[in-house]
Amino acid sequence: MKNEYLRVGQIVRAHGVRGDVKILPLTDDPARFRALKTAYLETAGAYAPVAVMDVRFQPDAVLLHLEGYDTVSRAETLKNAYLCVRRENAVRLKPDTYFVVDLIGCETFDSNGVAYGKLTDVLETGANDVYEIENGKLLVPALKRVLREVDVENGRIVFDAEVLGEVGCFAD
C-alpha cells in the first residue's frame, strides 16, 4: 500500500532568531514550497499537521517559519524531522516519472522472466538515476531503453534483458 504522505524535505537545523528552520529539499521542485500552506511533521512514524507561515530560499536550502515554532530552542526540537505532504497534494508527475518511495520495494525482472529481487534504493547521480537492486547486487541506470515496464501499482519493474546485459552493473 502506498504511503499517504510523501517527504518533501528534511529539517537540518534552526535558522535565525525567530525560530525558522532550514530545510534540505527532497523534491525535484523546491519552488513547490512557495504554495505550501500546510505540511506534516514526520516524527517516529507519526504525522502532525503544521501551518507554513513564511518561505524563503537559499541556493541549497529552503527556510521555513512553521506556526508554533517561534524560538530557536523550539525550532531545534525539529532537527532531522521530515516535512511531508499528503499524496493528493503532491506535485503532479510527468508521464514515465515516479516518486522514489513508490519504486522502493518493487520486484525486478528482465524481459526473459529472470528475477533480480527488490529495488532497495534510487541513487541520484546527476545524469540519470540509478536503481539499486538488493542492496547493490545489481545497479541499473534508469534509462528509457532499459526500462520495459514500470508498474508501481503492482510493485513490478521489467528491464529489457539485452540492454540490461550492456548497462547493468552486477556484483558478481
Give the distance, in angstroms, between the N- and C-terminal Cα atoms: 33 Å
Extract low-pLDDT stretches. none
Counting structural domains, the number is: 2
CATH class of the largest domain: Mainly Beta
Corresponding CATH superfamily of the largest domain: RimM
Produce a short descriptive summary:
With 172 residues, this protein is mostly beta strands. The protein has helices at 72-76, 100-103, 161-167; strands spanning 5-15, 20-25, 38-43, 46-58, 61-66, 82-86, 107-110, 115-124, 129-133, 138-141, 147-151, 156-159, 169-170. It folds into 2 domains: 5-89, RimM (Elongation Factor Tu (Ef-tu), domain 3), CATH 2.40.30; 100-170, PRC-barrel domain (SH3 type barrels, Roll), CATH 2.30.30.
Q: How would you explain this protein's 3D organization?
A:
The radius of gyration is 19 Å and the shape is elongated. It contains three helices and 13 strands. Helices cover 9% and strands 47% of the residues. The strands form two sheets. A seven-stranded mixed sheet has the order 11-12-7-8-9-10-13. The protein folds into two domains: 5-89, Beta Barrel (Elongation Factor Tu (Ef-tu), domain 3); 100-170, Roll (SH3 type barrels). The protein has helices spanning 72-76, 100-103, 161-167, and strands at 5-15, 20-25, 38-43, 46-58, 61-66, 82-86, 107-110, 115-124, 129-133, 138-141, 147-151, 156-159, 169-170. With 172 residues, it is mainly beta.
What layout of secondary structure does this protein have?
Blueprint lengths: L4 E11 L4 E6 L12 E6 L2 E13 L2 E6 L5 H5 L5 E5 L13 H4 L3 E4 L4 E10 L4 E5 L4 E4 L5 E5 L4 E4 L1 H7 L1 E2 L2
Parallel strand pairs: 7-12
Antiparallel strand pairs: 1-2, 1-6, 2-5, 3-4, 3-6, 4-5, 7-8, 8-9, 9-10, 10-13, 11-12
